[in-house]
Amino acid sequence: xxxxxxxxxxxxxxxxxxxxxxxxxxxxxxxxxxxxxxxxxxxxxxxxxxxxxxxxxxxxxxxxxxxxxxxxxxxxxxxxxxxxxxxxxxxxxxxxxxxxxxxxxxxxxxxxxxxxxxxxxxxxxxxxxxxxxxxxxxxxxxxxxxxxxxxxxxxxxxxxxxxxxxxxxxxxxxxxxxxxxxxxxxxxxxxxxxxxxxxxxxxxxxxxxxxxxxxxxxxxxxxxxxxxxxxxxxxxxxxxxxxxxxxxxxxxxxxxxxxxxxxxxxxxxxxxxxxxxxxxxxxxxxxxxxxxxxxxxxxxxxxxxxxxxxxxxxxxxxxxxxxxxxxxxxxxxxxxxxxxxxxxxxxxxxxxxxxxxxxxxxxxxxxxxxxxxxxxxx
Length: 378
Known about the structure:
The chain is α+β, with helices and mostly antiparallel strands. The protein has helices at residues 24-28, 53-59, 63-66, 71-74, 85-89, 140-177, 183-215, 227-240, 263-280, 338-348; strands spanning 38-42, 48-51, 100-107, 113-122, 129-138, 223-225, 248-252, 259-261, 285-293, 301-308, 352-357, 363-370. A five-stranded antiparallel sheet has the order 2-1-5-4-3. Helix 6 (140-177) packs antiparallel against helix 7 (183-215) and helix 7 (183-215) crosses helix 10. The longest helix has 38 residues, at 140-177. The relative contact order is 0.07.
């Protein structure tokens, strides 16, 4: 593959060294540099005939240096015990029925870890090896996933420890000294146990939601939803719990299109966004519900819900991390999973969510849902 860098007459054209020997790209039927993974191909004599751009990036070896070299020299891999990989596997002299080496972690010079899989191409099932095709993948994405899983386990263990310790302590005390406590003391301890059990239940529900979101199995059972009434119920619950009624401002644009959504999951979204505004924001919490353009292609109308507060807001540098796992806007507790789940629920409905700065300077979350009825009703 070549890249011209000048167009002036007589200017020298700068070309990147080809990823493969002349004629090999045509034989392969594609440009190896277009592949996202590293590709190294050796011929029947064990000489490298293809070394694409991704392989250059992963190994830090220029293609010009690798082409024509013996495979074991151009790609000197070792296993995690320090043994030379090509000597162990003997690609050209091994079992005649062998067709591949499954993906595994190997080491490049300097100790950098890569994921390597190998395919042996033969002219006939038990014939000599005509090509050795090596696929290289960077392990950084996998490491990020592993770190994310480790963080999730650590967070869950931490969040579970506190309520379970409380539940165990109070129940053990009640069982051992039941007669020594008054009815009021027993009630207080049982109410604490009940609240901590609810906390554990919510955490387990969050974990199940994350599992379904990550695997694409979050089910949405659409029903008609009165979004204004749903927000009103959340406001009434906060007022009943002691929040002043004038802290909330609900504005509903009329008429609104009919909204078909999963009422339980929309309640979960509203609960999280309003709770964030109440706990982390200041001043009036404003909820605007309007008709808007649908976020889904082929539909004209959608419903938009905007939750704003007058608090300090979210720093500009944190805006792009708000919907990631474990992001916390303050040190006031929480798992940092709520907004990640909110985004997953909204997107499972075919909607979109964004964060910004409210007119009063606080945080502003806006999500938009398509309003089309389920297919079986259209």
